[in-house]
Amino acid sequence: MKLFDSKEAAAYLGVKTSTLYAYVSRGLLDSVQATDDSRRRQYRKADLDRLKQRSDAHAGESAAAAGALRWGAPSLDTAISEITPAGPSYRGRTARGLVREGYAFEQVAELLWTGTLPESPPTWPMADVRPSQRHEEPVADEERPLDRMRLALMHTEMADLARFGTTKEARLECSRRIIMALGAALVSAAPSPRDSHDEESVAARLARHLATPEEAVIRAFDTALIAVADHELNASTFATRVAASTGAGLYPCVAAGLATATGPRHGGACDRGEALIDEVLREGSARKVMLARLRRGEQTPGFGHPLYPHGDPRWKMVVSRLGPTAAPEVLDAVDELVDVADQMRLGPPTVDLALATLCRALGLPSGAAAALFALGRTAGWIAHIFEQQEQGFLLRPRAHYVGVRPLPQ
Hints:
Elements: E1 3-4, H1 6-13, H2 17-25, E2 32-33, E3 41-44, H3 45-68, E4 81-84, E5 87-90, E6 93-94, H4 95-100, H5 105-114, H6 145-159, H7 168-187, H8 202-210, H9 215-227, H10 235-245, H11 250-261, H12 268-283, H13 286-295, H14 313-319, H15 328-343, H16 351-361, H17 368-391
Antiparallel strand pairs: 1-3, 2-3, 4-5, 5-6
Helix pairs in contact: 5-17, 6-7, 6-11, 7-8, 7-17, 8-9, 9-14, 9-17, 10-11, 10-17, 11-17, 12-16, 12-17, 14-16, 16-17
C-alpha cells in the first residue's frame, strides 16, 4: 500500500496543502497516522486516485455544461427540429424539401406545432388588431418593424380572451392569431374585417403591402419564412423555453423570444446585413467597404455560421427565389460582397445576409429583414413553448462562482 505525506499528496492531486486538509475535514479523503510519528498524517494512493477521478469527472461535467451554452453539445431533447448539413429539418422533413415541394409557411408552422403536415394551406383568420396599432406613416428611425411587432403582440394579448384556453385547439387558435398580428404589424397596415383580402396567406399579405403581389414574390416570402421557421435551440428559442418552463402563458413566452431577437448578435444581425449592403451601394465597391471595415477592426456580418462550416444552406434557399422584380443593383452588390468575402476567407454567406438581400432587393424598409426573421421564427418558438410545457420541468442551470470569496469570520 503506497502512502504519501501531505506535500506529496497535495502535489499528486494538484492542489495546495490547505485544500488537501479541507478534503479531509469534509469527509472526502481519509488520512492515516504515520507509523514513525503520531502527529504526522499520511494518505493512501488508492484514496487519492478515487478523489482525483471524482474531481476529473466533475470538471468534465462542468466543462461540458459550460460548453453547451456556447454552441456546444446538445443540452435538451427535442422532437421539433434538427440541424443537418443540408440545413434544418422540421419533424423529419427538411426545410429545403418543404420549399421545393411548394408547401406554404402556414403548413410548415402547423407541422412544427402538431407534427402533422396539412395537405393544403390552411386559412388563418386575420388578427383583430386594435386601431392604435395601425401605422400608415413610414417607420421612424426610432420605431423599427421589430419594435412595432412587440407592441402588436402586447395589444393582441390583451384583446385575446382565448389565451386562457387550455385545449389543443384553443392554443392553436392563439398561435395563428399571434403570427397574423405580427405579420400585420410588419406590413404597417393592419387588416380590418372589411379587408377584401382577408383570406390571404401570410406571404401574400407581405407581398401585397411591402412589394408586389406577384406569385414569384409571394413564393420568395414563403421560402424565407420557412427557411427560418426553426433552428433548434438558438438564443431566442432558449429564452422562450425558459419562460415556458416557469408556466408563463403563450404570449409572454413569445414576447421573450421577440425581446431576445432584437439583440445585434441574433435577429439584429439582419440589421447589420442591411447596413452592409447599403454601404456597398453607397460606396460602389464591396472590396473598399470590406477592407475599410477590417482595418478598423469592425465586424463583417453575414458570413460564416458556426453550425455550417461548409456553408449555410438557407442562403441559397432564399436568394435563389429572387426573380426579375428584385433590384439588379442590389443583387450585383451582394454578389460582389460574397466574392470579396470568399477571397478574404471570411466564410460562406449566411441566412442573415440572405434575408437582408431579399428585403433590400424588394425595396422593403430598414429593419424589415430582422422582422421577417422574427415572424418566421415565431412558428418555431411556439412549437418549443408547447414542447417545454409538455416536458414539465423548470429550466434552471447552475452557475460556477468565480468571484471573490468571503473573508473567514
